[in-house]
Design goal:
Helix content: 10-25%
Distance between the termini: 48 Å
Number of strands: 32
Number of helices: 8
Structural class: alpha/beta
Bound molecules: adenosine monophosphate, magnesium ion
Strand content: 25-35%
C-alpha cells in the first residue's frame, strides 16, 4: 500500500488538527455564510443585536467648536506674556448660540465660557478658570490670566470627531452601549438589525434524561442542552432545543434531519470512539462533509465540524429544505458541530468553535480570538501534546491580576467549572509553568 493511499484514507476516516487550524477552518467557513432577514427594533431592544444598517453622522461632530473646559474664551496672541489682564465682554453657557454681533472676542478681551458651549467668534483657545482670577471693577469685569495657552487648546473644532455623512458604525457590528450612544446621537430611535440565527441543540446519550425527570441510578440530567442554549443566546442566536436522541441510528438520524432545518446544528455527546458513539456515522450516512473530526485540545479533543447539503447561495426563510424540479428535497448547506458530551468539554468547544459561526450567521464578522494575560499564582505541571484550556480562577485587583487553576476532576466537573471564571491556556509543548509566569487566559 502506498503512503499516499494511507494518508488519504486516514484523512477521510479522521482529521485531527491543531487548535489553530481548527479555529481558522471555522473562521474561513464563517466568512462565507449569509445572515438572515432584517427586522426593525427600538433602540434599546437593539442592544446585543447585530446592525443591518450603518450608522452615519447626520451632522458634524461636534456640530460647533465645543469648549471642553470651564473658563474664558481668549485670543492666544493676548497671552504672549502672563499674567495678563483681559476685559470680560460676555458669557456663553452650554446651549447658548453666541451672536457674533454681540458676543465675540476682540483684542484684549475674553468671554466667560462653560464646558459644552460654542466658542465665540474671535477666540482661538479656552483658558481654564483655575488659572484665572476675576476682578469686578466699576467699568465692568476683568480677568487676570496667570497661565498662557496654545491656539486650539481646550476646545474641539467643529467636525473634528466626524464630518456629516461619515460612517460611525459599520453594518455587522454588534450593538453595545457605545453603539447605543452613537445611534442615539444621530437620532436613531429605531434600528435595522439582523434576525437571530436559529440554532438547533441536540443532546445524545442513552444515560441522559430530561431535567425534570428523577434520574435512575445510572442516569444523568441533560444539562448540556441548557448550557448550550444559554451560550447560543449569549452569542446572538436563538436556541431550538430538540431534546435527547437515544444512542440508536433511526431516532438520531430523524432528529439530526430536523436540526438541519435550523441555521446551525449543535450536537453533544456521541463523538468519541465508543461503540455507541454514532453521531459521525449517522452524519456520514447523510453525506456530511467533515472539515475536522478532532482538535488537539483538552478538554474537547473529539470535537467535530462539518456541513450537510448543497452549497447554494440562497438562504431559506425557515424550513431549510428546498424542493427541486425533480421533487427531491435538496438541503441548503448547513453547518454542524458535534461537541463532546462531557459538560466542560461542551462549553469550551462551544466558545472556541461554535461561537464564531453563530456570530457570522447573526451578521457579524466574527472577531479574532485573543487571549488575555495574568500572572500565574502557583506552578502548573501537565502533559505535552495538546493545547489545554484548564478552568481557573482569576483574582487580584486593578493591575495585579493573578490566576490559579481550579481544582477539578476533569471534563465532567461542572461544580468546579461554576467556581472558575476563566481558562488558563497552556501550549501543547509546555510541561511545566512556573509560578509568577504570565499565562494566556480565555475569559468566560
Ligand atoms: P459522550 O461524549 O457521549 O461519550 O459523553 C461523555 C460524558 O458526558 C458522559 O459521562 C455523559 O454522561 C456526559 N454527557 C453526555 N451528554 C450529556 C448531557 N446532555 N448533559 C450532561 N452530561 C452529558
Ligand atoms: Mg454518549
Amino acid at each position: 500500500m502506498s503512503s499516499s493511499h494511507l494518508s488519504s484514507s486516514a484523512e477521510t476516516a479522521a482529521r485531527v488538527v491543531s487548535f489553530e487550524v481548527a479555529r481558522h477552518l471555522v473562521e474561513q467557513h464563517a466568512m462565507g455564510v449569509c445572515p438572515g432577514e432584517v427586522a426593525t427594533v427600538d433602540l434599546l431592544a437593539g442592544l446585543g443585536r447585530v446592525l443591518a444598517e450603518e450608522m452615519v453622522a447626520d451632522r458634524d461632530f461636534p456640530p460647533f467648536a465645543r469648549a471642553t473646559r470651564d473658563g474664558y474664551a481668549v485670543r492666544t496672541a493676548d497671552l504672549a506674556e502672563v499674567p495678563a489682564r483681559l476685559e470680560v465682554v460676555g458669557e456663553v453657557k452650554a446651549g447658548d448660540w453666541p451672536d457674533p454681533a454681540q458676543c465675540s472676542v476682540g483684542r484684549g478681551q475674553a468671554v466667560g465660557i462653560m464646558t459644552g458651549a460654542p466658542l465665540p467668534a474671535g477666540a482661538d483657545a479656552v483658558v481654564m478658570v483655575e488659572h484665572t482670577s476675576l476682578a469686578a471693577l466699576a467699568a465692568g469685569n476683568s480677568v487676570e490670566v496667570r497661565r498662557s495657552v496654545g491656539a486650539g487648546e481646550n476646545f474641539v473644532p467643529r467636525g473634528a470627531e466626524a464630518r456629516a455623512g461619515q460612517r460611525l458604525l459599520d453594518r455587522g457590528r454588534r450593538l453595545d452601549h457605545a453603539g447605543v450612544a452613537i445611534a442615539a446621537s444621530v437620532g436613531k430611535s429605531q434600528l435595522q438589525v439582523f434576525r437571530k440565527p436559529r440554532v438547533a441543540v441536540l443532546s445524545t446519550g442513552d444515560e441522559v434524561v430530561e431535567i425534570d425527570a428523577t434520574p435512575g441510578p445510572a442516569q444523568i440530567r441533560n444539562s448540556n442542552s441548557y448550557s448550550l442554549a444559554a451560550q447560543v443566546r449569549n452569542a446572538g442566536g436563538e436556541a431550538v432545543r430538540l431534546g435527547i436522541a437515544r444512542d440508536e441510528r433511526g431516532q438520531l438520524r430523524a432528529l439530526i434531519e430536523e436540526g438541519l432545518g435550523c441555521d446551525l446544528l449543535l450536537l453533544t455527546g456521541g463523538v468519541s470512539m465508543g461503540k455507541y458513539d454514532l453521531v459521525e456515522q449517522v452524519l456520514g450516512e447523510l453525506k456530511a462533509e467533515f472539515y475536522f473530526t478532532g482538535a488537539e485540545i483538552q478538554p474537547g479533543r473529539p470535537v467535530v465540524f462539518g456541513s450537510c447539503g448543497a452549497d447554494t447561495p440562497v438562504r431559506l426563510p425557515a424550513a431549510g429544505a428546498l424542493s427541486t424540479r425533480t421533487g427531491v428535497p435538496a438541503l441548503h448547506k448547513k453547518y454542524f458541530f458535534g461537541l463532546p458530551g462531557n459538560p466542560v468539554s461542551t462549553m469550551v468547544t462551544f466558545e472556541l468553535f461554535a461561537r464564531p459561526m453563530i456570530e457570522a450567521l447573526a451578521g457579524m464578522t466574527p472577531p479574532r480570538l485573543v487571549f488575555q494575560r495574568a500572572r500565574l499564582k502557583s506552578e502548573i505541571r501537565t502533559k505535552t501534546g495538546l493545547k489545554r484550556f484548564l478552568p481557573a480562577v482569576l483574582s487580584g485587583e486593578f493591575e495585579n491580576a493573578e490566576v490559579e487553576l481550579a481544582r477539578w476532576q476533569g471534563s465532567g466537573d461542572i461544580a468546579a467549572l461554576a467556581q472558575a471564571n476563566c481558562y488558563v491556556v497552556i501550549p501543547p509543548e509546555r510541561e511545566r509553568i512556573e509560578a509568577g509566569e504570565w499565562v494566556p487566559l480565555l475569559m468566560r
